[in-house]
Write a structure and sequence with these properties.
654 residues, mainly alpha, Peroxidase, domain 1, Peroxidase, domain 2, 2 domains, 3-stranded antiparallel beta sheet, 22 helices, disordered C terminus
């Protein structure tokens, strides 16, 4: 797995790039002539297909990383001939070098193209960091890894966690379900596929019709595009239609196998797509590329089955009707939906840079600004310690709450984490892994938070994180730096996408796959993941989740967890509450979860477990850094900065 490229002199004013792009749009090249004299529609497709791989189920996909340049994405059927679009952008990438990432260039090309063709844009969030390979797209498929973690027995009927109904396509088969021109069967797939990246009906219809305001499809003959990049890297998708100098390009191009444009002005923005869909009758036929598409008598435009499906669902049809008659409504809906499409994988607005970044949008789950005056955390520490003197058992509960609040963080799309303290609200508060945390929050409220009531100086998110840190200091004697400044959300919106994935944890192989997957999504390295599994987990916490008990009720951090994993004999059983678990045969009353046992079934995890089991000091030394990483992971300051990086040893709370 390659580490993402970090740019040393990152561009913050994208105006020069936009000017260069506008000059490129109408400068047609012989190797891939521009349709209708304008490359704009090609770059809209490039940006859409780079961003449209995003899925909310695990945060994978999207254009942050620009993995469309690598397999598997570059060889997807839906990305046919997009290598030509990237080749057109290559001179600009060379010109600006490391100051401009491929991810930013691709999205900026699509956004600038919309604007250049008269379309509405909301702005541009820059700051994408390029990956060095396609590793993080492997689980998008098609691959063995994808089949293991998200199998799709029938391609064309794929379910979540995949983001598409058809592996190799961005969303679904536009010809219709399994290639059948059935609009009634298509509209549920349209809604489902767009929902998997958190698009509602209005956004879905605006994106489809707005995107199809531009450009044309290519299916000049039934012979296809030729070998893909992973089959023929030296000359991918050469095209088999036509002959001579124009073979496979221009009027002889083959991309998806459909042929024609949706509107009569494919390089000009407007709502003609919706007017055509609304005002004319459409019939299915087989186009010159051999695929089903739709025509209207006397008109030189076409539709796809997925387009026609928008007329078959009442909610979709109402939006088609609205956008056909109200261009302003379409402008507003499309500009916001496009920005969401290309920005959803970037996380909070605090990661965005550039000269045209819009205000925080709802999909970025904005938090209030940090107040100018924060609590004196030495005083907060005294309140926590005073309460702990009366109830020392709460130490491990504070550690548990802080971990659960932070562990929702996903490196894949920069969502989750404890900033916002959404663990106080549904759905997080109702998850089985969080059962009982409401009592811990109440304890903190009564003993600490009420002292700051109305001041705004102490947020729940800072308090939860800080209390966990104080708990760790009690259990290990290690002093940790604390980075304050978190603020609180007013609801749990956004957490619905972060729920722990359900899987059959009675199956060792399935459990191991899912543990590994969760580690990868979290952004933690294997060592960091393993060391954090030995955090304190009192029996009451485990029992609230449905297990019979825990491996220890100790309030001291030690390597006992690792020793038990290796030295005890573990018997699988089902708890009275129905949870799969393991009980020690040598010491009944000591329990582990299937996820715990996965650490000794994986060779890399096992070697780390063995090391920590034999060296308590190594474990105690490494735990604080991993803890700090997970609790501060969501404190963004630009694309790759962290607001907590400036914390120094002299700011330690002691």
């Amino acid at each position: 797995m390659a580490v993402a490229s970090v740019l040393s002199a990152r561009m913050t004013d994208f105006t020069p790039v936009e000017n260069d792009l506008k000059a490129l749009f109408t400068h047609s090249k012989a190797f891939w002539p521009a349709d209708n004299g304008h490359y704009g529609p090609l770059f809209v497709r490039l940006a859409w297909h780079c961003a449209g791989s995003y899925r909310t189920s695990d945060g994978r996909g999207g254009c942050d990383g620009a993995r469309q340049r690598f397999d598997p994405e570059r060889s997807w059927d839906d990305n046919t001939n997009l290598d030509k679009a990237r080749n057109l952008l290559q001179p600009l990438k060379i010109k600006y070098g490391d100051a401009l990432s491929w991810g930013d260039l691709i999205i900026l090309a699509g956004t600038t193209a919309i604007e250049d063709m008269g379309g509405p844009v909301l702005g541009f969030c820059g700051g994408r960091i390029d990956d060095l390979d396609g590793y993080h797209s492997i689980k998008l498929g098609p691959s063995t890894e994808q089949q293991e973690i998200a199998p799709c027995p029938v391609n064309g009927e794929c379910m979540s966690p995949l983001g598409t109904t058809t592996v190799g396509l961005i969303y679904l088969n536009p010809e219709g379900p399994m290639g059948n021109p059935d609009p009634l069967g298509s509209f549920p797939q349209v809604r489902d596929a767009f929902n998997r990246m958190a698009m509602n009906d209005s956004e879905t219809v605006a994106l489809i019709g707005g995107g199809h305001a531009f450009g044309k499809t290519h299916g000049a003959c039934p012979l296809g595009p030729g070998p893909s990049p992973n089959q023929q890297p030296d000359d991918p998708w050469p095209g088999n239609c036509g002959s001579g100098a124009m073979k496979g390009k221009g009027p002889n191009a083959f991309t998806a196998g459909f042929e024609g444009s949706w509107t009569t002005t494919p390089t000009k923005w407007g709502n003609e797509y919706f007017q055509n869909l609304h005002n004319y009758e459409w019939t299915s036929h087989v186009g010159p590329g051999g695929r089903h598409q739709w025509q209207s008598q006397g008109r030189d435009t076409m539709m796809l089955t997925s387009d026609i499906s928008l007329t078959k669902d009442p909610a979709f049809w109402a939006l088609v009707t609205e956008y056909a008659s109200d261009l302003d409504a379409l402008n507003n809906a499309f500009s916001h939906a496009w920005y969401k499409l290309v920005t959803r994988d970037m996380g909070p607005v605090t990661r965005c840079i550039g000269n045209n970044v819009p205000p925080a949008q709802d999909f970025q789950y904005p938090l209030p600004p940090t107040p100018s005056k924060l609590a004196d955390f030495h005083a907060v520490e005294k309140l926590i310690n005073s309460a702990l003197e009366k109830d020392p058992s709460m130490v491990s509960f504070l550690v548990h709450l802080s971990y659960q609040c932070s562990a929702t963080f996903r490196q894949t799309d920069y969502q989750g984490g404890c900033n916002g303290a959404r663990i106080r609200f549904p759905p997080e508060s109702t998850w089985s892994v969080n059962q009982g945390t409401d009592k811990i929050i109440e304890w903190l409220d009564v003993n600490v938070k009420q002292a700051y009531k109305g001041s705004g100086a102490l947020s729940f998110s800072d308090l939860i994180t800080f209390a966990g840190q104080i708990g760790l200091q009690h259990t290990s004697g290690v002093l940790l730096e604390f980075c304050s400044g978190r603020t609180d959300a007013t609801d749990g919106v956004g957490s619905e996408f972060l729920a722990p994935r359900e899987f059959d944890d009675s199956n060792v192989s399935v459990t191991l796959l899912n543990v590994r997957d969760r580690q990868e999504i979290s952004g933690l390295f294997a060592r960091e993941w393993v060391v954090l599994q030995a955090r304190l987990r009192p029996s009451a916490v485990q029992q609230a989740q449905g297990y019979s008990g825990s491996w220890s009720d100790s309030t001291m951090l030690s390597n006992r967890f690792f020793k038990l994993l290796l030295l005890e004999t573990w018997k699988p059983q089902v708890s009275p509450a129905g949870k799969n678990e393991f009980v020690s045969l040598e010491h009944p009353g000591i329990y582990m979860t299937p996820q715990d046992l996965a650490l000794i079934y994986d060779a890399e995890y096992l070697s780390i477990v063995q090391e920590f089991a034999s060296d308590n000091q190594a474990f105690v030394d490494e735990f604080p850094a991993a803890w700090t990483k997970i609790t501060n992971a969501d404190r963004f300051d630009g694309p790759d900065g962290n607001a907590c990086e400036a914390v120094r040893t002299d700011s330690q709370i002691q």
